[in-house]
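Database export, one record per block. Field names are fixed; values are copied verbatim from the stored entry.
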Amino acid sequence: RQPNDDGLSEQDCVEVRRAYGLPAAAVGPARLASATFAWNDRDCSTANYFVCERLQTDEPLEDSWLPECNRTVILSRNQPKASVSSPGFPRQYPDNANCDIDIIASSGYKIILDFEELVLEDEPSCSYDYLMILEVRSNDSSSFNESVASKRLCGDWSSKLKLLRHVSSGSRLRLRFSSDYSHHYGGFKARVSMENVMQCSDDQFFLYNNSCYLIVSYPEVGWNTSQQICESTKANLASVLSAEEETFIITTIRRTSDYRTSALYWLGGHSTSDRREFVWTDSSPVTYLGWPPGSVSKSRKEEDWCLGVRWAASPASHLPSGLYWTPRP
C-alpha cells in the first residue's frame, strides 16, 4: 500500500526526487530518472536534503489571526449561508485563543450549524480547549450578554460529525472558542445557514418576508371598505416596499383560482390630503414606485386617489402586458 510502486514498504516520510533506486530483484538499470521531480515515500531515517518553511515575517502565528478572532456573521435573504472556523484554520489553532463569533439571522429565522470538521483537545469536562454554542435568551434582546450555554464540545468528532448538527431556538447564536496554553489540534469548521420558521396562522394567507398576505377576490368593494375588512383580520392593505415584494404580490394574485384580468386589487397606497403624493396606510411615504409610464397625471387633484393593481395591455414598447399599478378614485 505505497503511494508509488517502488516495491518497498513501511516508509512513513515523503521526499521529492527525479531518480529512483530499484530493489535487487528488479531487472534493468539500477536507477531510473523521471522528467520532473515527483513525490516518493521513504524511510524517515534516510539521509536527505530538506526544505524548511516559515511565515513571511518573523511575527508569531498568533498575530495573523487576531483581527478575525472576534467577528459577527449576518445572514440575510441575499446571503443566507456562510462559513465559520477556528482561528488559523486549516492550520492548527494557536494557544491561549479566546474568540466569539456572533451569528445573526433575520427575524423569524433559525440558524443551522453543520460541522465539516471538529478536532480539539480531548478532556472529560471539556475545560482545556473547547467550542461552546450559546443561545440568546430572547430574540427581543439586541445583546449577546443574555446568552446561555447550549453545548460544550471538545475531542475528535471526525467519525460522527452529523451528530453535531445544531438548530438554534431563535435568530441569534454565539460560538465561543477557547484554547489553553498547550496542545493545539486541527480546530473546527462549520457551515452556517438559516431557515424560515414562521408560519401564517391561516392557510389562506401566503407567507413572504415575515409577513402574511391574503388575496381577497370577493366581494368587490371600495378602498375604505377594503381597509376595514383587512383591519378586522388584524391586517392592513398591503404596502409595497421593493420590486421583489411587488413581484411576489403580482405572482400570488395571478395564481389564485378567482383571478380575472378585469379585476382590480386594492393596495395600501392613497393620496395625501393635498393630493400631491401617495402614502401607505401607516402614513409612510411611497418610496418604491411601480407606476407604468403615463399612469399618473399631475392634474388629477379634484378628488382623492387610491392605489390598486390591474391587468393592462403593454403600457410601453419595452414592457409586456400584465398587472400594473393604477390610481383609482
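Remark 1: The chain has three domains: 1-53, 62-196, 206-328.
Remark 2: Residues 58-67 have pLDDT under 50 and may be disordered.
End of record.
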